[in-house]
Design a protein that fits this description.
single chain, mainly alpha, two-stranded antiparallel sheet, 13 helices, 2 strands, globular
């Protein structure tokens, strides 16, 4: 793995994302495209939303450029980038005018189905425990869920950018430890940079939000990177890295389903939202999540190094501790950014 190339990818994507987000912010302010607070919002002032236009463009152009420039980067990333475009388009329409959930899901399912047909995963994600077609169907369902949970979890300043950067770092680390999948390390590095450039504008108090045009395509692209890692044998690492997001979103959805709530509607019931309501601000919650993500990256590296089960058990303990920490609002004093 060429670390100089990875560093160059991170820096280039970061600078481009930072500059592009600044341009988008100016344009959105001029056109008064704002996310106005409501009863389910975590922000209190009208804020431009749609930074994903810059962030996702940087990632997609970066992925295609990397596939052209570097022989180690698989041409598969070009297919994934192309399949992401319709998702970005309908997500932007949803930002601007609103699109019925069924239509959004249909586009996501079609794009994920096309991606799995045109760019099959390099192996079974369940490591041969399921028949081939069932394994592929399970991959599609998990991918759709990850796309939407990434969107659900984008509810306070800096959390989506922090999670995207953390997942990118973790995937690069796992690729380095495992000694394989170098072809996806550069795309992961581009995600790190793009997320970092966006975080400059989205750090609390945020001056701009990703919008669905950012969070939904990011979920699609990161979902593919994680599935690719699992299909290459790093199933435990692929589960550990996003474990906080998976646990928070899934548990919250199940609680709402059991209560008969409309799960597609916006709400403020996620664990991170409960933590943010204790008055310490978004920064304390995001910093707690970031610290746990550092631990998850270390555990994912341990899993890739030959300790998958102990690492997964430790990750579950850490994530359950964070969920309890957020739900009971026992955030450490002084953590606010």
């Amino acid at each position: 793995m060429d670390w100089a190339v990875l560093l160059a990818a991170v820096v280039t994507a970061a600078v481009t994302s930072w500059a592009g987000t600044g341009v988008v912010l100016s344009n959105l302010r001029r056109r008064s495209i704002l996310d106005h607070p409501n009863a389910r919002s975590s922000h209190t002032t009208p804020t431009p939303h749609g930074s994903g236009l810059a962030v996702v463009t940087v990632i997609l152009v970066g992925w295609v450029s990397a596939a052209v420039a570097f022989p180690d980067v698989s041409d598969v990333v070009m297919v994934i980038a192309a399949c992401c475009l319709p998702i970005a388009v309908i997500s932007r329409l949803d930002d601007l005018k609103g699109v019925a959930p069924v239509w959004r899901l249909m586009v996501q399912a079609a794009c994920i189905g096309a991606a799995l047909v045109l760019a099959p995963l390099p192996g079974p994600i369940f490591q041969g425990l399921l028949p081939g077609t069932v394994d592929t169907a399970a991959a599609a369902i998990l991918w759709i869920w990850f796309v939407n949970l990434f969107n659900f979890m984008d509810g306070i300043d800096a959390i989506a950018g922090t999670e995207a950067a953390s997942l990118g770092i973790g995937l690069v680390v796992v690729a380095g430890v495992a000694g394989g999948a170098t072809g996806t390390a550069v795309p992961a590095a581009i995600v790190i940079g793009a997320a970092a450039g966006f975080l400059w504008w989205n750090r609390p108090p945020a001056r701009i939000f990703l919008g669905d045009v950012g969070s939904v395509p990011l979920g699609f692209l990161l979902g593919w990177l994680l599935l690719d890692a699992a299909a290459r044998g790093e199933w435990a690492a692929a589960l550990i890295l996003p474990l906080y997001y998976l646990a928070d979103a899934t548990w919250t959805l199940l609680r709402r389903l059991l209560r008969g709530a409309k799960v597609w509607e916006a709400h403020r019931e996620h664990f991170y939202q409960q933590g943010a309501r204790d008055g310490r601000g978004h920064g304390a919650v995001v910093l707690a999540v970031a610290l746990v993500n550092v631990v998850l990256i270390v555990l994912a590296a341990a899993a890739a190094g030959g300790w998958p089960v102990p690492a997964l058990i430790a990750a579950l303990v850490v994530v359950v501790g964070l969920l309890d920490h957020l739900a009971t609002r026992r955030l450490w004093s002084g953590l606010d950014l």
